[in-house]
Protein backbone atom coordinates (compact mmCIF):
# COMPACT_ATOMS: atom_id res chain seq x y z
CA UNK A 1 0.00 0.00 0.00
CA UNK A 2 1.34 3.43 -0.94
CA UNK A 3 0.17 6.93 -1.67
CA UNK A 4 -0.72 7.34 -5.31
CA UNK A 5 -2.42 9.76 -7.66
CA UNK A 6 -5.65 8.79 -9.38
CA UNK A 7 -5.20 7.64 -12.99
CA UNK A 8 -7.72 6.85 -15.74
CA UNK A 9 -7.17 3.10 -15.29
CA UNK A 10 -7.93 3.12 -11.53
CA UNK A 11 -10.90 2.11 -9.41
CA UNK A 12 -11.64 4.37 -6.43
CA UNK A 13 -13.22 3.09 -3.23
CA UNK A 14 -14.37 5.43 -0.44
CA UNK A 15 -14.59 3.58 2.87
CA UNK A 16 -15.19 5.30 6.23
CA UNK A 17 -13.42 8.50 5.18
CA UNK A 18 -10.50 6.72 3.51
CA UNK A 19 -10.04 6.71 -0.24
CA UNK A 20 -8.43 3.62 -1.75
CA UNK A 21 -7.16 3.60 -5.33
CA UNK A 22 -6.41 0.35 -7.14
CA UNK A 23 -5.52 -0.26 -10.76
CA UNK A 24 -8.54 -1.84 -12.50
CA UNK A 25 -6.56 -4.71 -14.07
CA UNK A 26 -4.86 -5.58 -10.77
CA UNK A 27 -8.21 -5.40 -8.93
CA UNK A 28 -9.70 -7.93 -11.35
CA UNK A 29 -6.89 -10.37 -10.43
CA UNK A 30 -6.88 -9.63 -6.69
CA UNK A 31 -10.56 -9.47 -5.79
CA UNK A 32 -11.96 -9.89 -3.31
CA UNK A 33 -9.75 -7.37 -1.49
CA UNK A 34 -10.17 -6.62 2.21
CA UNK A 35 -8.30 -3.83 4.02
CA UNK A 36 -8.37 -3.70 7.83
CA UNK A 37 -6.84 -1.02 10.06
CA UNK A 38 -5.27 -2.70 13.09
CA UNK A 39 -4.34 0.42 15.09
CA UNK A 40 -0.68 0.15 14.13
CA UNK A 41 -1.02 -0.40 10.39
CA UNK A 42 -3.11 -1.93 7.66
CA UNK A 43 -3.70 -5.60 6.93
CA UNK A 44 -4.54 -6.41 3.32
CA UNK A 45 -6.13 -9.70 2.23
CA UNK A 46 -6.81 -10.68 -1.36
CA UNK A 47 -7.11 -13.75 -3.56
CA UNK A 48 -3.46 -13.37 -4.63
CA UNK A 49 -0.86 -15.50 -2.86
CA UNK A 50 2.30 -13.42 -2.62
CA UNK A 51 4.28 -16.32 -1.14
CA UNK A 52 4.61 -14.77 2.32
CA UNK A 53 6.61 -17.76 3.53
CA UNK A 54 9.37 -16.83 1.06
CA UNK A 55 9.16 -13.08 1.59
CA UNK A 56 11.70 -11.05 3.52
CA UNK A 57 9.15 -8.40 4.45
CA UNK A 58 9.54 -7.73 8.14
CA UNK A 59 11.83 -10.67 8.74
CA UNK A 60 15.24 -9.60 7.35
CA UNK A 61 15.89 -13.13 6.13
CA UNK A 62 18.54 -13.93 3.58
CA UNK A 63 15.92 -14.05 0.82
CA UNK A 64 15.68 -10.26 0.71
CA UNK A 65 17.34 -6.96 1.43
CA UNK A 66 15.94 -5.08 4.43
CA UNK A 67 17.92 -1.92 3.69
CA UNK A 68 15.72 -0.92 0.73
Describe the structure.
With 68 residues, this protein is mainly beta. It has a domain at 10-51. It has one helix spanning 24-30; strands at 10-15, 18-23, 34-37, 42-45. The model is unreliable at 61-68 (pLDDT under 50).
Question: Number of DSSP strands?
Answer: 4
Low-confidence stretches: 61-68
- Look at the structure and give the mean pLDDT: 78
The 3D shape can be described as globular
> Could you say which structural class the secondary elements and strand pairing correspond to?
mainly beta
* Radius of gyration from CA coordinates: 14 Å
Spell out the key features of this protein.
mainly beta, disordered C terminus, 68 residues, 1 helix, two-stranded antiparallel sheet
Short description:
With 68 residues, the chain is mainly beta.
How is this fold's topology laid out?
Layout: E1 10-15, E2 18-23, H1 24-30, E3 34-37, E4 42-45
Amino acid sequence: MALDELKDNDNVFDVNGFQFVMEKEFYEKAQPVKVDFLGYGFKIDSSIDFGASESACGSCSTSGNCSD
